[in-house]
UniProtKB/TrEMBL annotation:
<protein>
    <recommendedName>
        <fullName>Insertion element IS402-like domain-containing protein</fullName>
    </recommendedName>
</protein>
<dbReference type="Pfam" id="PF13340">
    <property type="entry name" value="DUF4096"/>
</dbReference>
<dbReference type="InterPro" id="IPR025161">
    <property type="entry name" value="IS402-like_dom"/>
</dbReference>
<feature type="domain" description="Insertion element IS402-like">
    <location>
        <begin position="2"/>
        <end position="68"/>
    </location>
</feature>
<dbReference type="InterPro" id="IPR052909">
    <property type="entry name" value="Transposase_6_like"/>
</dbReference>
Length: 113
């Protein structure tokens, strides 16, 4: 998978400090969202959470995530390796109380004529 993603990642700047390993940073971001853990709970072997968080935001601003997703979806769709079935569990959907027809304070629902 990395061989597909690597060409889509931003190149390191010519000047300034070297970036943290892009592959490890990507693995760190994936781990965070896969486990649902807070950023500060990253294991030490994944590196600094500040680096991963900043890179996540920077790559989002540059459109890197959209580019990666589009390329991976196109590749998977091209070899018919993707299923487009979507399932929604309605038990977790909630409406705001006003959407359920709750009364507004001071409003009795009658009109005076």
């Amino acid at each position: 998978m990395w061989d597909r993603i690597k060409p889509l990642m931003p190149v390191e700047p010519v000047r300034g400090r070297r970036w943290a390993n892009r592959r490890r940073t990507l693995e760190t971001i994936a781990w965070k969202f896969r486990t649902g853990s807070p950023w500060r709970a990253l294991p030490d072997e994944l590196g600094s959470f500040q680096t991963a968080h900043k890179r996540l935001l920077r790559w989002a601003a540059y459109g890197i995530w959209e580019r990666i997703l589009a390329a991976l979806l196109a590749a998977a769709d091209g070899v018919d390796d993707i299923g487009w079935t979507v399932s929604v569990d309605s038990t977790v959907c909630r409406a705001h109380q006003h959407a359920a027809g709750a009364r507004i304070k001071g409003h009795h629902g009658t009109t005076s004529g």
